[in-house]
Amino acid sequence: VKAWLLSMLVLPVALGGQLVLKVQVSGRITAVPLERYVAGVVGAESGVFRSGEALKAMAVAARTYGVRMRGRHGAEGFDVCDTTHCQRMDLSSITPRFGAAAAATEGELLWFHGKPAFTPYSRDCGGKTEDAGAVWPELAAPYLKSHADAWSADEPRWRWRGSAEQILQALRQAGLQTPARIEGISILSSTPSGRAATLVLTGRGGASRVSASAFRFAMGRELGWNTIRSDAYAVRPDKGGFAFDGAGSGHGVGLCQLGTERMGVAGKSYREILEFYYPGTTLAQSGEGIPWQRLRGRGITFLTVNHGNDRVAMEAAERLSRALLTRTGWPLPEGLELRIYPDLDAFRNATGEPGWVAARTDGRRIHLSPVEGLRKRGVLESTIAHELLHALMDGQAAPGLPVWFREGLSDVLDKQPVTGVARIPLEADLRQRTDPARARRAYADAAAMVASLVRRYGETAVVGWVRRGVPAEVTYASASQPKPNSK
Ligand SMILES: [Zn+2]
Ligand SMILES: [Zn+2]
């Protein structure tokens, strides 16, 4: 790890297990651990489900939605509310079944391009899901296109009949423009799924246009939510009023709860359900779905989404790997991969590292935070060198080679200025990610310790310890064991 890029401490969403949401629960701000929040949403939103797989699918949708919406109410001092504005959540509804649905999918999110997907859901899409762009133009996504849904197609259609006077009053209550008397209602335009988009109201005093969703919310608020249940309807004049014949319930975007329950009852897994309603997303605990381009270099495979922008890092990596081979005699391990993330969020989501960590190496895979940030701070080359040294060292390391020694030697071989005190830091201080200052001291001490060993024993001897192990006289103070493939 190369650390202390930024002083800010931002927990990545990939640390699902540790995430706590500030939820406004019936008006009071409450800290709710993510998995408890998920169980509370499953209970409130889909308590009637019989299928365990359907509950798990809902748990993943609810978790992803909650994480994606985190901070939505930031200006008011909390993350999400417990109403349909965000998603309904009721801690008192949690039963062992709902807790189990959350636990069975713990930390799992749907990802798209390295970030949590936008995962809306509705009660019943009436046989065809809606395109997100038709409902929230700024949230259109390739995995939220309208598609047929045979699982919910056979549901009986609903009918609502309202008098012209009722409808007029409801529209006025909602502050919507309307003619003085409504004599006609017709659908002016439709969405890609065939739902009403814009209505035109005609009558005495002219005509006015109203969006179908505003019309539906006005009727719902004034006359009850069982009146116009969705925008998938036909409307016709009917004995002095209007009859709406429709299908489904809710906006219809994303997961359809009715179809989900039926898929689960029919034996489909929660993965199949999620793939059906959010096609093209990836189910995982950490960031996935980045549209990587693979470029084979000399000895290193680069993963980038913008090779023009990242070329400087790729060139540096090839140059540094040759220089380090000369210096240490360690060849590049077979299959070494350098992933250059397009933005800090994608880096943090994929690695689980906080924002102040600049890079991370897992065995033969180096994860590098975005090039711009590293360049701006003047640490691009030193970060790449440090991580390359980890990868090179890993191919040579004796079992149990301590973390402090790996970290310190990487900095010393990269000729970083020595700022710490020559002592062996606690491994816990090197590994923790909650206190950047403590980590910075521990890394600096490790580097100073290795620098003092180099002065005493010579660089060749100290480099040789990578293969043979650090002599006992040096490691007496280090009681901890390193975890392989992670530093
Ligand atoms: Zn390191
Ligand atoms: Zn809200």
Task: Name some characteristics of this structure.
binds zinc ion; 17 helices; alpha+beta; 38% helix; 487 residues
What does this 3D model show about the protein?
The protein is of the alpha+beta class. It contains 17 helices and 19 strands. The strands form 6 sheets. The chain has a 5-stranded mixed sheet, with helices on one face. A 3-stranded mixed sheet has the order 2-1-3. It has a 3-stranded antiparallel sheet with strand order 5-4-14. A hairpin with a 2-residue loop joins strand 18 and strand 19. It is elongated and about 100 Å long. The C terminus is likely disordered. Bound molecules: zinc ion (2 copies). One zinc ion (ZN) binds next to helix 12 and helix 13. The site of one zinc ion has 6 residues, from strand 3.
What is this structure's SSE topology?
Layout lengths: L19 E6 L2 E6 H13 L5 H17 L11 E2 L14 H9 L4 E4 L2 E2 L4 E2 L9 H4 L22 E6 H10 L10 E7 L5 E8 L2 E6 H12 L9 E6 L2 E6 L8 E2 H9 L4 H8 L4 E3 L8 E4 L3 E5 L2 H22 L7 E5 L3 H8 L7 E4 L2 E4 L2 H6 L3 H15 L8 H11 L13 H5 L4 H22 L1 H10 L3 H4 L12
Parallel strand pairs: 1-3, 6-13, 16-17, 17-19
Antiparallel strand pairs: 1-2, 4-5, 4-14, 7-12, 8-9, 9-10, 11-12, 15-16, 18-19
Helix pairs in contact: 1-2, 1-3, 2-3, 2-7, 2-8, 5-6, 9-12, 12-13, 13-15, 15-16
Summarize the structure.
With 487 residues, the chain is α+β, with helices and mostly antiparallel strands.
